[in-house]
Amino acid sequence: MAPLLHLRDVALTFGGQPLLEAAEIAVSAGERVCLVGRNGSGKSTLLKIVAGLVEADSADRFVQPGCTVRYLPQEPDFTGYKTSLAYVEAGLGPGDDAYRAQYLIDELGLTGQEDPATMSGGESRRAALARVLAPEPDILLLDEPTNHLDLPVIEWLEQELKSLRSAMVLISHDRRFLTSLSRATIWLDRGLTRRMDKGFGEFEAWRDEVLAQEELDRHKLDRKIAREEDWLRYGVSARRTRNQRRLGELHGLREQRRTARNVVGNVRLEASEAQTSGKLVIEAIDVAKSFGDNAVVKSLSLRVARGDRIGIVGPNGAGKTTLINLLTGALAPDSGKVKLGVSLNMVTLDQRRESLDPATPLGDALTGGGSDQVMVGDTPRHVIAYMKDFLFQPLQRRTPVGALSGGERGRLMLARALAKPSNLLVLDEPTNDLDLETLDLLQELLADYQGTVLLVSHDRDFIDRVVSATLISDGDGVWTEFAGGYSDMLAQRGRGVGAKVRAVPGKSAPAEDKPTVAAAPAPVSKRKLSFNEKHALETLPKRIAVLQAEAAKLSQALSGDLYTRDPKLFAKATTRLEEVTREIGQAEERWLALEMLQEELGA
Q1: Are residue 120 and residue 72 in the same domain, yes or no?
Q2: Could you report the per-residue pLDDT of 446-475, keeping only the tens digit for each?
Q3: Does the pTM of the predicted model rise above 0.70?
Q4: What is the DSSP letter of 184?
Q5: Same domain for 59 and 155
Q6: Pick from 217, 215, 50, 68: which is nearest to 137 by CA?
Q7: Spatial separation of the C-alpha atoms in residues 433 and 45, rounded to whole Å
Protein backbone atom coordinates (compact mmCIF):
# COMPACT_ATOMS: atom_id res chain seq x y z
CA MET A 1 0.00 0.00 0.00
CA ALA A 2 1.39 3.38 -1.01
CA PRO A 3 2.06 5.61 2.02
CA LEU A 4 -0.02 8.72 2.61
CA LEU A 5 3.12 10.45 3.82
CA HIS A 6 6.78 9.54 3.40
CA LEU A 7 9.87 11.39 4.64
CA ARG A 8 13.32 10.12 3.69
CA ASP A 9 16.89 11.18 4.37
CA VAL A 10 15.88 13.74 6.98
CA ALA A 11 18.94 15.59 8.29
CA LEU A 12 19.03 18.38 10.84
CA THR A 13 21.90 19.92 12.83
CA PHE A 14 21.60 22.01 15.99
CA GLY A 15 24.61 23.92 17.35
CA GLY A 16 27.08 22.01 15.21
CA GLN A 17 25.82 18.63 16.48
CA PRO A 18 23.73 16.40 14.17
CA LEU A 19 20.32 15.78 15.71
CA LEU A 20 18.89 13.80 12.77
CA GLU A 21 20.88 11.88 10.15
CA ALA A 22 19.11 10.05 7.32
CA ALA A 23 15.97 9.63 9.44
CA GLU A 24 12.91 8.16 7.72
CA ILE A 25 9.21 7.90 8.53
CA ALA A 26 6.36 6.54 6.41
CA VAL A 27 2.65 6.41 7.29
CA SER A 28 0.01 4.47 5.37
CA ALA A 29 -3.77 4.80 5.60
CA GLY A 30 -5.14 3.67 8.95
CA GLU A 31 -1.67 2.85 10.31
CA ARG A 32 -0.87 3.45 14.00
CA VAL A 33 2.80 4.16 14.59
CA CYS A 34 4.51 5.06 17.85
CA LEU A 35 7.69 7.13 17.70
CA VAL A 36 9.99 6.32 20.61
CA GLY A 37 13.41 7.45 21.76
CA ARG A 38 15.18 9.06 24.66
CA ASN A 39 14.54 12.62 25.84
CA GLY A 40 16.53 14.91 23.55
CA SER A 41 16.79 12.38 20.71
CA GLY A 42 14.69 14.62 18.42
CA LYS A 43 11.26 12.94 18.47
CA SER A 44 9.26 16.16 18.76
CA THR A 45 11.46 17.87 16.18
CA LEU A 46 10.98 15.01 13.72
CA LEU A 47 7.21 15.15 14.26
CA LYS A 48 7.25 18.90 13.54
CA ILE A 49 9.17 18.21 10.33
CA VAL A 50 6.52 15.63 9.40
CA ALA A 51 3.84 18.25 10.10
CA GLY A 52 5.70 20.80 7.94
CA LEU A 53 6.28 23.18 10.87
CA VAL A 54 10.07 22.84 10.95
CA GLU A 55 12.29 22.81 7.90
CA ALA A 56 15.04 20.20 7.88
CA ASP A 57 18.51 20.84 6.49
CA SER A 58 17.64 18.24 3.87
CA ALA A 59 14.75 15.82 3.35
CA ASP A 60 12.64 14.16 0.67
CA ARG A 61 9.01 14.76 1.66
CA PHE A 62 5.98 13.24 -0.07
CA VAL A 63 2.35 13.77 0.93
CA GLN A 64 -0.47 12.34 -1.16
CA PRO A 65 -2.54 15.11 -2.77
CA GLY A 66 -5.66 15.88 -0.74
CA CYS A 67 -4.31 14.16 2.39
CA THR A 68 -5.26 16.04 5.56
CA VAL A 69 -2.78 16.19 8.46
CA ARG A 70 -3.40 17.52 11.98
CA TYR A 71 -0.65 18.04 14.56
CA LEU A 72 -1.07 18.18 18.36
CA PRO A 73 1.71 20.33 19.87
CA GLN A 74 2.87 20.02 23.46
CA GLU A 75 2.20 23.74 23.98
CA PRO A 76 -0.77 24.90 21.86
CA ASP A 77 -1.09 28.56 20.84
CA PHE A 78 -4.47 30.11 21.72
CA THR A 79 -3.62 33.61 20.52
CA GLY A 80 -6.60 35.33 18.95
CA TYR A 81 -9.32 33.02 20.29
CA LYS A 82 -11.88 34.26 22.83
CA THR A 83 -13.23 30.84 23.88
CA SER A 84 -12.14 27.22 23.82
CA LEU A 85 -14.97 26.38 21.40
CA ALA A 86 -13.81 29.08 18.95
CA TYR A 87 -10.31 27.57 19.07
CA VAL A 88 -11.66 24.07 18.36
CA GLU A 89 -13.97 25.18 15.54
CA ALA A 90 -11.10 27.01 13.84
CA GLY A 91 -9.50 23.62 13.23
CA LEU A 92 -12.43 22.39 11.11
CA GLY A 93 -12.12 22.33 7.36
CA PRO A 94 -14.73 22.73 4.62
CA GLY A 95 -17.27 19.94 4.85
CA ASP A 96 -16.33 18.92 8.40
CA ASP A 97 -19.15 18.30 10.89
CA ALA A 98 -19.42 21.36 13.16
CA TYR A 99 -21.44 19.31 15.67
CA ARG A 100 -18.41 17.10 16.30
CA ALA A 101 -16.50 20.05 17.78
CA GLN A 102 -19.20 20.56 20.42
CA TYR A 103 -19.43 16.79 20.99
CA LEU A 104 -15.70 16.56 21.73
CA ILE A 105 -15.80 19.65 23.95
CA ASP A 106 -18.54 17.97 26.01
CA GLU A 107 -16.81 14.59 26.13
CA LEU A 108 -13.58 16.18 27.32
CA GLY A 109 -15.30 17.97 30.21
CA LEU A 110 -15.21 21.54 28.89
CA THR A 111 -18.06 24.01 28.46
CA GLY A 112 -16.69 25.66 25.31
CA GLN A 113 -16.83 29.08 26.99
CA GLU A 114 -13.47 28.84 28.80
CA ASP A 115 -11.15 31.82 28.34
CA PRO A 116 -7.90 30.44 26.81
CA ALA A 117 -5.89 33.01 28.78
CA THR A 118 -6.97 31.48 32.11
CA MET A 119 -7.23 27.79 31.23
CA SER A 120 -5.19 25.29 33.26
CA GLY A 121 -2.69 22.93 31.65
CA GLY A 122 -5.27 20.13 31.63
CA GLU A 123 -7.96 22.31 30.06
CA SER A 124 -5.53 23.55 27.40
CA ARG A 125 -4.57 19.98 26.52
CA ARG A 126 -8.23 18.92 26.20
CA ALA A 127 -9.07 21.87 23.95
CA ALA A 128 -6.05 21.09 21.77
CA LEU A 129 -7.13 17.44 21.52
CA ALA A 130 -10.66 18.45 20.51
CA ARG A 131 -9.26 20.71 17.78
CA VAL A 132 -7.16 17.97 16.12
CA LEU A 133 -9.75 15.19 16.56
CA ALA A 134 -12.79 17.12 15.32
CA PRO A 135 -11.91 17.04 11.57
CA GLU A 136 -11.07 13.28 11.68
CA PRO A 137 -8.03 13.89 9.41
CA ASP A 138 -6.24 11.30 7.30
CA ILE A 139 -3.15 11.54 9.58
CA LEU A 140 -2.99 12.50 13.26
CA LEU A 141 0.38 13.55 14.70
CA LEU A 142 0.12 13.44 18.50
CA ASP A 143 2.99 14.71 20.68
CA GLU A 144 2.48 13.54 24.30
CA PRO A 145 -1.35 13.57 24.09
CA THR A 146 -1.77 12.26 27.67
CA ASN A 147 0.24 15.07 29.33
CA HIS A 148 -1.83 16.91 31.99
CA LEU A 149 -4.74 14.46 31.57
CA ASP A 150 -6.23 12.40 34.36
CA LEU A 151 -7.04 8.70 34.12
CA PRO A 152 -10.69 9.00 33.02
CA VAL A 153 -9.75 11.26 30.11
CA ILE A 154 -6.76 9.07 29.16
CA GLU A 155 -8.97 5.99 29.02
CA TRP A 156 -11.64 7.89 27.05
CA LEU A 157 -8.97 9.12 24.62
CA GLU A 158 -7.74 5.55 24.04
CA GLN A 159 -11.21 4.43 23.03
CA GLU A 160 -11.82 7.51 20.89
CA LEU A 161 -8.57 7.03 18.97
CA LYS A 162 -9.32 3.33 18.46
CA SER A 163 -12.64 4.26 16.85
CA LEU A 164 -11.04 6.63 14.31
CA ARG A 165 -9.93 5.59 10.85
CA SER A 166 -7.16 8.19 10.84
CA ALA A 167 -3.55 7.08 10.58
CA MET A 168 -1.60 8.09 13.70
CA VAL A 169 1.93 8.84 14.79
CA LEU A 170 2.15 8.88 18.60
CA ILE A 171 4.81 10.16 20.99
CA SER A 172 4.12 9.28 24.61
CA HIS A 173 5.85 8.14 27.79
CA ASP A 174 2.69 6.22 28.81
CA ARG A 175 3.50 2.56 28.12
CA ARG A 176 -0.09 1.34 28.52
CA PHE A 177 -1.34 3.99 26.09
CA LEU A 178 1.30 3.09 23.45
CA THR A 179 0.80 -0.66 23.86
CA SER A 180 -2.96 -0.32 23.47
CA LEU A 181 -2.86 1.84 20.33
CA SER A 182 0.31 1.20 18.32
CA ARG A 183 0.70 -1.40 15.58
CA ALA A 184 4.17 -0.33 14.38
CA THR A 185 7.17 1.24 16.10
CA ILE A 186 9.78 3.70 14.86
CA TRP A 187 12.82 4.00 17.12
CA LEU A 188 14.76 7.26 16.86
CA ASP A 189 18.24 6.61 18.22
CA ARG A 190 21.41 8.68 17.71
CA GLY A 191 19.90 10.51 14.76
CA LEU A 192 18.79 7.39 12.88
CA THR A 193 15.42 5.67 12.67
CA ARG A 194 14.71 1.96 12.79
CA ARG A 195 11.26 0.52 12.12
CA MET A 196 9.55 -2.56 13.52
CA ASP A 197 6.15 -3.57 12.15
CA LYS A 198 4.88 -4.49 15.61
CA GLY A 199 3.40 -2.44 18.40
CA PHE A 200 5.18 -0.99 21.40
CA GLY A 201 4.60 -4.16 23.43
CA GLU A 202 7.38 -5.83 21.41
CA PHE A 203 9.70 -2.82 21.32
CA GLU A 204 11.90 -3.32 24.37
CA ALA A 205 12.89 -6.90 23.52
CA TRP A 206 13.66 -5.82 19.93
CA ARG A 207 15.67 -2.79 21.10
CA ASP A 208 17.77 -4.96 23.43
CA GLU A 209 18.54 -7.35 20.54
CA VAL A 210 19.64 -4.44 18.32
CA LEU A 211 21.89 -3.00 21.02
CA ALA A 212 23.39 -6.41 21.80
CA GLN A 213 24.22 -6.88 18.11
CA GLU A 214 25.79 -3.41 18.00
CA GLU A 215 27.96 -4.29 20.98
CA LEU A 216 29.05 -7.51 19.28
CA ASP A 217 29.91 -5.64 16.06
CA ARG A 218 31.86 -3.04 18.06
CA HIS A 219 33.83 -5.80 19.78
CA LYS A 220 34.66 -7.38 16.41
CA LEU A 221 35.79 -4.01 15.07
CA ASP A 222 38.05 -3.45 18.10
CA ARG A 223 39.65 -6.87 17.58
CA LYS A 224 40.22 -6.17 13.87
CA ILE A 225 41.86 -2.83 14.69
CA ALA A 226 44.12 -4.55 17.23
CA ARG A 227 45.20 -7.13 14.61
CA GLU A 228 45.94 -4.43 12.03
CA GLU A 229 47.91 -2.35 14.53
CA ASP A 230 49.96 -5.42 15.41
CA TRP A 231 50.72 -5.91 11.69
CA LEU A 232 51.64 -2.22 11.39
CA ARG A 233 54.17 -2.47 14.24
CA TYR A 234 55.78 -5.78 13.37
CA GLY A 235 55.06 -6.50 9.71
CA VAL A 236 58.37 -6.30 7.81
CA SER A 237 56.68 -5.22 4.57
CA ALA A 238 54.44 -2.55 6.02
CA ARG A 239 56.10 0.24 4.05
CA ARG A 240 56.02 -1.43 0.63
CA THR A 241 53.84 0.25 -1.94
CA ARG A 242 51.50 -2.73 -2.30
CA ASN A 243 50.73 -2.54 1.45
CA GLN A 244 49.76 1.12 1.48
CA ARG A 245 46.15 0.10 0.75
CA ARG A 246 46.10 -2.02 3.91
CA LEU A 247 47.54 0.87 5.90
CA GLY A 248 44.79 3.12 4.53
CA GLU A 249 42.18 0.57 5.57
CA LEU A 250 43.54 0.62 9.12
CA HIS A 251 43.17 4.41 9.25
CA GLY A 252 39.62 3.95 7.96
CA LEU A 253 38.84 1.45 10.73
CA ARG A 254 40.19 3.85 13.34
CA GLU A 255 38.04 6.64 11.95
CA GLN A 256 34.99 4.35 11.92
CA ARG A 257 35.54 3.47 15.58
CA ARG A 258 36.22 7.08 16.54
CA THR A 259 33.10 8.47 14.87
CA ALA A 260 30.76 5.66 15.97
CA ARG A 261 27.92 7.24 17.91
CA ASN A 262 27.76 5.13 21.03
CA VAL A 263 24.58 4.50 22.95
CA VAL A 264 23.82 7.30 25.38
CA GLY A 265 24.51 6.18 28.94
CA ASN A 266 21.79 5.26 31.38
CA VAL A 267 20.64 7.34 34.31
CA ARG A 268 22.12 6.06 37.57
CA LEU A 269 19.45 6.23 40.24
CA GLU A 270 20.27 5.46 43.84
CA ALA A 271 18.20 6.66 46.77
CA SER A 272 19.93 7.74 49.97
CA GLU A 273 18.19 5.81 52.73
CA ALA A 274 18.00 7.08 56.30
CA GLN A 275 17.78 4.94 59.42
CA THR A 276 14.88 2.52 59.54
CA SER A 277 11.56 4.03 60.58
CA GLY A 278 9.19 2.50 63.06
CA LYS A 279 7.00 -0.39 61.95
CA LEU A 280 3.93 1.88 61.82
CA VAL A 281 4.55 4.81 59.47
CA ILE A 282 1.11 6.48 59.19
CA GLU A 283 -2.21 5.80 60.84
CA ALA A 284 -5.31 7.77 59.82
CA ILE A 285 -8.33 7.40 62.11
CA ASP A 286 -11.73 8.56 60.79
CA VAL A 287 -10.14 11.53 58.99
CA ALA A 288 -12.33 14.08 57.18
CA LYS A 289 -11.56 17.23 55.20
CA SER A 290 -13.84 19.59 53.28
CA PHE A 291 -13.53 22.86 51.39
CA GLY A 292 -16.83 24.65 51.75
CA ASP A 293 -19.55 22.18 50.76
CA ASN A 294 -17.13 19.91 48.90
CA ALA A 295 -15.97 16.87 50.85
CA VAL A 296 -12.45 15.88 49.75
CA VAL A 297 -11.90 13.15 52.38
CA LYS A 298 -14.69 11.58 54.39
CA SER A 299 -14.31 9.10 57.30
CA LEU A 300 -10.99 7.67 56.07
CA SER A 301 -9.19 5.13 58.24
CA LEU A 302 -5.89 3.78 56.93
CA ARG A 303 -2.74 2.15 58.29
CA VAL A 304 0.56 2.43 56.37
CA ALA A 305 3.31 0.08 57.58
CA ARG A 306 7.04 0.26 56.93
CA GLY A 307 7.83 -0.92 53.39
CA ASP A 308 4.30 -0.34 52.04
CA ARG A 309 3.95 1.24 48.60
CA ILE A 310 0.59 2.98 48.34
CA GLY A 311 -0.66 4.26 44.97
CA ILE A 312 -3.25 7.06 45.07
CA VAL A 313 -5.42 7.43 41.97
CA GLY A 314 -8.45 9.45 40.99
CA PRO A 315 -9.63 12.09 38.53
CA ASN A 316 -8.34 15.65 38.59
CA GLY A 317 -10.12 17.46 41.40
CA ALA A 318 -10.64 14.37 43.54
CA GLY A 319 -8.20 15.70 46.15
CA LYS A 320 -5.16 13.44 45.72
CA THR A 321 -2.65 16.11 46.74
CA THR A 322 -4.87 17.15 49.65
CA LEU A 323 -4.97 13.52 50.80
CA ILE A 324 -1.16 13.31 50.62
CA ASN A 325 -0.88 16.48 52.70
CA LEU A 326 -3.27 15.06 55.30
CA LEU A 327 -1.40 11.75 55.56
CA THR A 328 2.00 13.43 55.92
CA GLY A 329 0.87 16.00 58.48
CA ALA A 330 1.27 19.02 56.17
CA LEU A 331 -2.48 19.74 56.43
CA ALA A 332 -4.70 19.39 59.52
CA PRO A 333 -7.94 17.41 59.12
CA ASP A 334 -11.33 18.92 60.01
CA SER A 335 -11.99 15.87 62.17
CA GLY A 336 -10.29 12.61 63.01
CA LYS A 337 -6.63 12.06 63.74
CA VAL A 338 -3.42 11.28 61.82
CA LYS A 339 -0.56 9.63 63.71
CA LEU A 340 2.95 9.62 62.23
CA GLY A 341 5.47 6.94 63.17
CA VAL A 342 8.80 7.50 64.85
CA SER A 343 12.13 8.28 63.14
CA LEU A 344 10.52 9.42 59.89
CA ASN A 345 12.72 11.13 57.29
CA MET A 346 10.39 12.25 54.51
CA VAL A 347 11.41 13.46 51.03
CA THR A 348 8.77 14.87 48.66
CA LEU A 349 8.88 15.19 44.87
CA ASP A 350 6.23 17.76 43.90
CA GLN A 351 4.51 17.51 40.52
CA ARG A 352 4.71 21.23 39.68
CA ARG A 353 8.49 21.58 40.12
CA GLU A 354 7.61 24.61 42.31
CA SER A 355 10.80 24.30 44.37
CA LEU A 356 12.92 25.09 41.29
CA ASP A 357 13.90 28.74 40.75
CA PRO A 358 14.09 29.27 36.95
CA ALA A 359 17.08 31.62 37.34
CA THR A 360 19.16 29.18 39.41
CA PRO A 361 21.99 27.43 37.53
CA LEU A 362 21.67 23.65 37.32
CA GLY A 363 24.80 23.05 39.42
CA ASP A 364 23.61 25.38 42.19
CA ALA A 365 20.19 23.70 42.23
CA LEU A 366 21.99 20.46 43.14
CA THR A 367 24.60 21.82 45.57
CA GLY A 368 22.64 24.66 47.13
CA GLY A 369 25.21 27.14 45.78
CA GLY A 370 28.70 28.07 46.93
CA SER A 371 30.11 24.56 46.55
CA ASP A 372 31.04 21.96 43.96
CA GLN A 373 29.98 19.05 46.18
CA VAL A 374 26.60 17.30 46.39
CA MET A 375 25.88 15.45 49.62
CA VAL A 376 24.31 12.15 48.59
CA GLY A 377 23.24 10.86 51.96
CA ASP A 378 26.40 11.24 54.06
CA THR A 379 28.76 10.91 51.08
CA PRO A 380 30.07 13.96 49.16
CA ARG A 381 29.98 13.71 45.36
CA HIS A 382 31.43 16.17 42.86
CA VAL A 383 28.55 17.98 41.17
CA ILE A 384 29.79 17.13 37.65
CA ALA A 385 29.97 13.40 38.44
CA TYR A 386 26.49 13.50 40.00
CA MET A 387 25.13 15.40 36.99
CA LYS A 388 26.48 12.71 34.67
CA ASP A 389 24.58 10.07 36.66
CA PHE A 390 21.40 11.82 35.48
CA LEU A 391 22.56 12.33 31.86
CA PHE A 392 23.47 16.01 32.21
CA GLN A 393 26.53 17.27 30.35
CA PRO A 394 29.30 19.16 32.23
CA LEU A 395 28.61 22.26 30.10
CA GLN A 396 25.07 22.39 31.53
CA ARG A 397 26.33 23.19 35.03
CA ARG A 398 25.72 26.92 34.46
CA THR A 399 22.48 26.45 32.48
CA PRO A 400 19.52 28.17 34.21
CA VAL A 401 16.83 25.78 35.37
CA GLY A 402 14.29 27.72 33.30
CA ALA A 403 16.16 26.81 30.09
CA LEU A 404 15.93 23.05 30.75
CA SER A 405 13.40 20.86 28.95
CA GLY A 406 10.53 19.26 30.84
CA GLY A 407 12.36 15.93 30.92
CA GLU A 408 15.55 17.56 32.18
CA ARG A 409 13.65 19.35 34.95
CA GLY A 410 12.10 16.01 35.90
CA ARG A 411 15.54 14.41 36.16
CA LEU A 412 16.81 17.37 38.18
CA MET A 413 13.97 17.00 40.68
CA LEU A 414 14.78 13.30 40.99
CA ALA A 415 18.46 14.07 41.50
CA ARG A 416 17.64 16.54 44.30
CA ALA A 417 15.12 14.27 46.00
CA LEU A 418 17.21 11.10 45.86
CA ALA A 419 20.28 12.82 47.33
CA LYS A 420 18.47 13.41 50.62
CA PRO A 421 18.37 10.61 53.24
CA SER A 422 14.82 9.28 53.56
CA ASN A 423 12.71 6.38 54.73
CA LEU A 424 9.45 7.83 53.38
CA LEU A 425 9.26 8.93 49.72
CA VAL A 426 6.25 11.01 48.69
CA LEU A 427 6.07 11.12 44.88
CA ASP A 428 3.42 13.37 43.31
CA GLU A 429 3.33 12.62 39.56
CA PRO A 430 7.03 11.67 39.33
CA THR A 431 6.68 10.26 35.80
CA ASN A 432 5.85 13.59 34.11
CA ASP A 433 8.20 14.21 31.15
CA LEU A 434 10.51 11.27 31.94
CA ASP A 435 11.65 9.03 29.09
CA LEU A 436 11.00 5.28 29.16
CA GLU A 437 14.55 4.32 30.19
CA THR A 438 14.48 6.68 33.17
CA LEU A 439 11.07 5.30 34.14
CA ASP A 440 12.52 1.78 34.07
CA LEU A 441 15.34 2.78 36.38
CA LEU A 442 13.00 4.66 38.73
CA GLN A 443 10.88 1.51 38.98
CA GLU A 444 13.96 -0.56 39.81
CA LEU A 445 15.03 1.96 42.45
CA LEU A 446 11.62 1.89 44.13
CA ALA A 447 11.62 -1.92 44.04
CA ASP A 448 14.92 -1.95 45.97
CA TYR A 449 13.98 0.93 48.29
CA GLN A 450 13.67 -0.30 51.88
CA GLY A 451 11.47 2.58 53.03
CA THR A 452 7.83 3.47 52.46
CA VAL A 453 6.39 5.07 49.30
CA LEU A 454 3.28 7.19 48.74
CA LEU A 455 2.72 7.60 44.99
CA VAL A 456 0.27 9.78 43.05
CA SER A 457 0.27 8.96 39.34
CA HIS A 458 -1.90 8.75 36.22
CA ASP A 459 0.51 6.21 34.65
CA ARG A 460 -1.28 2.86 34.92
CA ASP A 461 1.74 0.79 33.93
CA PHE A 462 3.98 2.56 36.46
CA ILE A 463 1.40 2.00 39.22
CA ASP A 464 1.15 -1.69 38.33
CA ARG A 465 4.91 -2.13 38.54
CA VAL A 466 5.50 -0.18 41.76
CA VAL A 467 2.69 -0.26 44.31
CA SER A 468 1.50 -2.94 46.72
CA ALA A 469 -1.91 -1.32 47.33
CA THR A 470 -4.07 1.23 45.52
CA LEU A 471 -6.21 3.90 47.17
CA ILE A 472 -8.88 5.16 44.77
CA SER A 473 -11.41 7.98 44.95
CA ASP A 474 -15.02 6.81 44.73
CA GLY A 475 -16.30 10.39 44.69
CA ASP A 476 -17.84 12.63 47.35
CA GLY A 477 -14.79 12.27 49.59
CA VAL A 478 -14.91 8.47 49.79
CA TRP A 479 -11.57 6.64 49.33
CA THR A 480 -11.31 2.83 49.04
CA GLU A 481 -8.18 0.70 49.35
CA PHE A 482 -7.52 -2.30 47.09
CA ALA A 483 -4.63 -4.77 47.25
CA GLY A 484 -2.24 -4.65 44.27
CA GLY A 485 -1.79 -2.20 41.40
CA TYR A 486 -4.16 -0.49 38.99
CA SER A 487 -4.99 -3.66 37.03
CA ASP A 488 -5.67 -5.55 40.28
CA MET A 489 -7.95 -2.73 41.44
CA LEU A 490 -9.74 -2.81 38.10
CA ALA A 491 -10.35 -6.57 38.44
CA GLN A 492 -11.65 -6.22 42.01
CA ARG A 493 -13.68 -3.04 41.52
CA GLY A 494 -15.01 -3.90 38.08
CA ARG A 495 -14.43 -0.40 36.72
CA GLY A 496 -11.73 2.23 36.44
CA VAL A 497 -11.48 5.80 37.66
CA GLY A 498 -14.68 7.77 37.14
CA ALA A 499 -14.57 11.31 35.79
CA LYS A 500 -15.78 14.23 37.86
CA VAL A 501 -18.35 16.77 36.78
CA ARG A 502 -16.81 20.03 35.57
CA ALA A 503 -16.86 22.78 38.18
CA VAL A 504 -19.74 25.24 38.22
CA PRO A 505 -18.62 28.59 36.74
CA GLY A 506 -18.07 31.26 39.37
CA LYS A 507 -17.22 28.86 42.20
CA SER A 508 -13.62 28.60 43.31
CA ALA A 509 -11.78 25.72 44.95
CA PRO A 510 -8.35 25.20 46.52
CA ALA A 511 -5.32 25.24 44.23
CA GLU A 512 -4.57 21.99 42.38
CA ASP A 513 -7.48 19.98 43.73
CA LYS A 514 -10.57 22.10 42.89
CA PRO A 515 -12.89 19.31 44.08
CA THR A 516 -16.39 19.07 42.68
CA VAL A 517 -19.34 16.92 43.54
CA ALA A 518 -19.26 13.57 41.77
CA ALA A 519 -21.88 13.04 39.12
CA ALA A 520 -24.82 10.85 40.02
CA PRO A 521 -25.39 8.03 37.54
CA ALA A 522 -27.92 9.04 34.92
CA PRO A 523 -30.98 6.80 34.65
CA VAL A 524 -30.75 4.34 31.80
CA SER A 525 -33.89 5.78 30.26
CA LYS A 526 -32.10 9.14 29.79
CA ARG A 527 -29.15 7.53 27.98
CA LYS A 528 -28.75 8.36 24.29
CA LEU A 529 -26.49 6.97 21.63
CA SER A 530 -23.33 9.07 21.36
CA PHE A 531 -22.16 10.64 18.11
CA ASN A 532 -19.59 7.88 17.61
CA GLU A 533 -22.10 5.13 18.40
CA LYS A 534 -24.59 6.52 15.87
CA HIS A 535 -21.86 6.86 13.27
CA ALA A 536 -20.65 3.29 13.89
CA LEU A 537 -24.19 1.92 13.68
CA GLU A 538 -24.66 3.56 10.27
CA THR A 539 -21.25 2.72 8.78
CA LEU A 540 -20.45 -0.74 10.18
CA PRO A 541 -22.71 -2.66 7.72
CA LYS A 542 -20.85 -1.10 4.77
CA ARG A 543 -17.52 -1.81 6.44
CA ILE A 544 -18.50 -5.45 7.02
CA ALA A 545 -19.58 -5.81 3.37
CA VAL A 546 -16.23 -4.43 2.16
CA LEU A 547 -14.31 -6.80 4.43
CA GLN A 548 -16.41 -9.78 3.34
CA ALA A 549 -15.73 -8.97 -0.31
CA GLU A 550 -12.00 -8.76 0.41
CA ALA A 551 -12.12 -12.08 2.28
CA ALA A 552 -13.88 -13.76 -0.65
CA LYS A 553 -11.29 -12.42 -3.07
CA LEU A 554 -8.41 -13.63 -0.90
CA SER A 555 -9.99 -17.07 -0.46
CA GLN A 556 -10.38 -17.42 -4.22
CA ALA A 557 -6.74 -16.46 -4.78
CA LEU A 558 -5.51 -18.95 -2.18
CA SER A 559 -7.58 -21.80 -3.64
CA GLY A 560 -5.58 -21.75 -6.90
CA ASP A 561 -1.89 -22.42 -7.58
CA LEU A 562 -0.67 -19.24 -5.88
CA TYR A 563 1.57 -21.17 -3.49
CA THR A 564 3.44 -22.79 -6.42
CA ARG A 565 3.76 -19.54 -8.35
CA ASP A 566 4.64 -17.17 -5.53
CA PRO A 567 5.10 -18.61 -2.00
CA LYS A 568 5.80 -15.16 -0.50
CA LEU A 569 2.60 -13.70 -1.94
CA PHE A 570 0.72 -16.79 -0.71
CA ALA A 571 2.01 -16.23 2.85
CA LYS A 572 1.11 -12.54 2.67
CA ALA A 573 -2.41 -13.32 1.41
CA THR A 574 -2.88 -15.93 4.16
CA THR A 575 -1.87 -13.44 6.86
CA ARG A 576 -4.18 -10.78 5.42
CA LEU A 577 -7.10 -13.25 5.26
CA GLU A 578 -6.63 -13.99 8.97
CA GLU A 579 -6.63 -10.26 9.74
CA VAL A 580 -9.74 -9.63 7.63
CA THR A 581 -11.59 -12.54 9.24
CA ARG A 582 -10.74 -11.17 12.69
CA GLU A 583 -11.84 -7.66 11.69
CA ILE A 584 -15.16 -9.01 10.36
CA GLY A 585 -15.81 -10.76 13.67
CA GLN A 586 -14.98 -7.64 15.68
CA ALA A 587 -17.12 -5.42 13.43
CA GLU A 588 -20.10 -7.80 13.62
CA GLU A 589 -19.85 -8.00 17.41
CA ARG A 590 -19.69 -4.22 17.67
CA TRP A 591 -22.65 -3.74 15.33
CA LEU A 592 -24.72 -6.34 17.20
CA ALA A 593 -23.93 -4.72 20.57
CA LEU A 594 -24.99 -1.31 19.23
CA GLU A 595 -28.21 -2.73 17.76
CA MET A 596 -29.08 -4.26 21.13
CA LEU A 597 -28.24 -1.00 22.91
CA GLN A 598 -30.42 0.97 20.50
CA GLU A 599 -33.35 -1.39 21.12
CA GLU A 600 -32.89 -1.12 24.90
CA LEU A 601 -32.80 2.67 24.79
CA GLY A 602 -35.84 2.74 22.51
CA ALA A 603 -37.70 0.49 24.92
Answers
A1: yes
A2: 877 888 999 998 888 888 888 888 999 988
A3: no
A4: E
A5: yes
A6: 68
A7: 16
